Amino acid sequence: MRLLVFGLGYDSPLWHALNPGGVTVFLEEDPEWYNIVRTESPFLRAHLVQYRTRLDHADALFESYKRFNSCLPGEAAESPVRIRRNEDCPLALHNLPPEVYENEWDMLMIDAPKGYFPEAPGRMAAIWTATAMAWSRRGEGDTDVFLHDVDRPVEKMFAEEFLCERFRVGGTGRLWYFSIPPVSRRGNTTAASGGAERPFC
C-alpha cells in the first residue's frame, strides 16, 4: 500500500518493514531529529519539511479558515480541495516534495509535527492536508487516517472539524482512526457535508 507518515521515530523502521513492496514515506520537521533517524536508518524514504503554522495560532486558524475559499472544498466532485501550490490557504502544506502529491495515499498516520509548546508547528496543517488528500482521491477505496494525541485540545478540535466524527471508525487510548471516502463517491458535496457551518463534515 501507499503509506504517508507525518513524523520520524524509533518506530519508523517497523512501519517500513510492515509495508514490503509498498511505498512508505515519512515527513519530519526537526532537522536534528531527522539527521539522527536517517543516520540510524538510511534506508527510510524521508523528507525534511517546513510548516507555516504555530500551535499558539491554532484558535485563530480554526476561526478564520472559512474566510479563505482556497481552504474550502469545491462545489463539485471534480474540484475537491487543492493542496499543491495553494499558498493562499494557511493550513495547506503547499510545498511538500513532489512525490507526496503524485501518489494517492491509502493510509496516513499523523504523529507530527510537534504540538506541545506554543512555538511548535502544531498538527493543524497536517490534519487539514490529510483530509484534503482523502477528499481528492481518484482511486478505489477509502483513505485510512490515524491521528495520535487526541487527548490534546488542538488535535481533537481539528480532527472533529476536518476528519469528522461520522468518518471515525475506531480508536484506542490517544489514537483515533478515520476512514474517509473520496468526494467523488459522496454525491452532492454540499448536501453530504455540514454545509457552511462545517464544510468538511
From TrEMBL:
Identification of the protein by name: Uncharacterized protein
UniProt organism field: Avena sativa (Oat)
